[in-house]
Prior knowledge:
It comes from Anisodus tanguticus. This protein is α+β, with helices and mostly antiparallel strands. 30% of the residues lie in helices and 28% in strands. The chain has 16 helices and 26 strands. A hairpin with a 2-residue loop joins strand 18 (432-443) and strand 19. Helix 14 (564-589) packs antiparallel against helix 16 (632-659). The longest helix is centred in the last third of the chain and has 31 residues, at 592-622. It is elongated, with a radius of gyration of 38 Å. It starts with a helix and ends with a helix.
Amino acid sequence: MVRLRTVLVFLVLFKSFGSIIAEGEEQIEQFSEALLLRPLPDRKVLAHFHFESKVPPTRTHGSHHHLFPKSIYQLVHKFRVREMELSFTQGRWNYGRWGGYDSISSRNAKPPGVELWATFDVPQHQVDASWRNLTHALSGLFCASINFLESSTAYSSPKWSFKSFAANIRYGTLPREAVCTENLTPWLKLLPCRDKAGLSALMDRPSIYRGFYHSQRLHLVSNEFDLAAATSGMVLEQTLTVVLQPITLGSGMTSSVGSIQQPSWSLSSLFGREVSGRCVLSNASNVYVQLEPNLVSELKTTSETQHQSDVENLISQAWSDMSFELSDSPVRIIKEVYGFQESSLLYEFSLANFSDSRPFDLEFRWKRPVTWSSQLAPLQASRFLMGSGNERGAIAISLKSVGRSGYAESSVNKEGRCSFQVDVFQVVPWYVKVYYHTLKVFLDERLHNLADVIERTNVSPSEDKVSPGLMEIALRLPCDVHSVILTLEFDKGFLHIDEYPPDANQGFDIPSALIRFPEIKTKMHLFEDKSACKSPILSKLQEESPVLWYTEVLLVPLTTPDFSMPYNVITITCTVFALYFGSLLNALRRRVEEEERLLKSKATKASGPIGVLLSKLSAKLRGKPLEPPPSSLASKVSYKLILRVILVAGIAAAWQYFFG
Length: 660
């Protein structure tokens, strides 16, 4: 009986121990890395690095981590951050050439400078304090001027532009923040292997910063304070998007029609380095080469005597004898399936079989000239200033159709009319006093009533030296619209002399406006493959995201004082006071009697005994007593010195009266 009880207890313990191990395997830290390469139509290459770190909740996993960065973990718990996105961008994304209707551009095309938004799990009255503390922490963590966003004049509270009707959200941007390697180095330190191994070793600083566009992004989602989400903890997504001009490998080629061949490239020609294997701490380390849908369509249509069987071979093989070739054979080829439209292709390469003795250096070589264009957003947006002078002006936002109405075919109302929604988000500094009642909307160059076009608005007028102006507008536009223009009038304010930046004559920045298409979403439609779920970058590309478009940063000239005038006033005032007090102190501290005796002794020594005898003899002959040598100093003190002191005092009193 005792032996039977012992066996039963052992079985129960073994079962519970096995369940604990299984649960521990599910709740374990994960890290993955991926690189997506895409040829662009304008002879450039897009390189998109994607790193993702996951950690289970603290209540089940504890506060000690092996892979997740401790600084981010402490930041989330100290300021109770629910979601945050921070980006450092140099250059501007070219929506017309690099595309605006894909997952990469919708998520990673950011405005120039620094952009930060965050939501907090704190009461409403503590949101501003948490935001200020968060900006200071991020400023020290990434060696940037993010702490300038702590002022109430630098951040706003949008409602639906970033998170739908989130009450505890704050948004701020610094358009003029310079991005350099001292911002990238702390960003790389958040990775488990840093830049010593894996795909992050490709991030050669000169190669990255010579690109036409560079954006490093950090997106954090935390469910630490949500008791309902018991299985998910924190997810940290780090992306680096770079547009590079490849160094041509081999000689160029020109077709008979004059089109220039795309430049061939490799990893070593783009980044100056090769990949020596994966990061040993990563669960997945893959490299993808993506061909855009328009490029795939162009390759199919320009192929000579191309049949359906050959098209299938192109999809299943490595295009070895067609328009280009790859130096390594891919592990698999992923085809996008999206109805009857053209789909993109993904060539996947795994770094598991590469090491220091056999580095990975993928080469992409073109065989013939190919021209294509990227997929564009339904409307191309631009923003500019109108008016002249330093008193008033106007902001204009222009939206022009690209000639494709298929984006909004599903947006049909009850009356059978096709329409789609466009959200406009814009923040202006307090010294640009926008009159929101002057808003005008022109559809196809015709003025329309605002009630017929605008669905909802969220306007927060600016307050001098307290808060910026915020405008959120939801427009309902017909599908056949060709052009939309929004205009707003404003007055230019005046700043105190202490509020001007060092380069005030350059102008003042108005941050980029955000154009959002909430009903027009983009994602990649891949085959339902279980292995695809293991790759975070593929899972991210398959998530729906609305099409976004950031406009240009506007440069507004304000009335600027002549900063040389205070310099001249300070200089002449200091000169006058120096002359006045110098002369006064010289007259008060000078000892006249001692100087006279010193001059007499010097005169006696200079004349000598013969001179003294001649002076006495001359005095006797004239019948007059011997006179001492005249003291020029005494006369100078008695007349000229007093006159100078009076003159300087009069000048100082007159200057103080007229200019003080």
